[in-house]
Task: structure prediction
Amino acid sequence: MTTGFIIAVVIMFVLIIGITIVVTNKAYGRKPDVIDPIKPLPDPNKKETDQ
Result:
């Protein structure tokens, strides 16, 4: 293998690893979507008055 080929392979690995790090940081850096909290279940012991 020639020196140029080895240098090209090393540069490709560096680019792939760098792009992976950038994409991962962007994915983990964004704010997560807001999830609506679960509404509390109605209390079965509570009596409703008939009107």
